[in-house]
Amino acid sequence: QVHLVESGGGLVQAGGSLRLSCAASGSIFNINVMVMGWYRQAPGKQRELVADITSGGSTNYPDSVKGRFTISRDNAKNTVYLQMNSLKPEDTAVYYCNAHYTPWGLNRYDYWGQGTQVTVSS
Questions:
Q1: In this structure, are strands 35-41 and 93-101 parallel, antiparallel, or unpaired?
Q2: The dihedral of CA 7, 10, 15, 17: what is its sign?
Q3: What gap in Å lies between CA 40 and CA 18, rounded to an integer?
Q4: Three-class DSSP category at 67
């Protein structure tokens, strides 16, 4: 199994910043073949992509966080980060670390952390 453990969540005022970390481990885990990402889920809403990053460093962000959030990874440490700046109340959610790969372009395999709460007050 692949184990993902998030940390760094908390309570912050609007306009503030947080940095989330996700440490990956497991006997089958090879971070070099994984796309790493962050998703979030607010109460009553579906889980949505926040950011992802390939092993080569290519990143992807939805419009809701572009210019405010930055994803990065340290493959040697098996760790992925999410730097969140200019936080807004609508960013309040549980943030989940994700790792996935799609061997031979067929089935996609996903691994998830337990989540860390981010609360942004107005």
A1: antiparallel
A2: negative
A3: 14
A4: coil
Average pLDDT over residues 83-89: 98
In angstroms, what CA-CA distances link 25 with 6, 20, 77? 12, 17, 10
CA separation (Å) from 9 to 20, 33, 91?
6, 27, 12
Single-letter code of the amino acid located at 25? S
pLDDT at 27: 74
Distance between CA atoms of 48 and 42, rounded to whole angstroms? 9
Instruction: List, for residues 6-51, the tens digit of each pLDDT value.
Output: 999 999 999 999 999 999 998 767 777 889 999 999 999 999 999 9
Based on its alpha-carbon atoms, the radius of gyration of the chain, rounded to whole angstroms, reads 14
Closest to 83 in 3D by CA, of 43, 114, 53, 48: 53
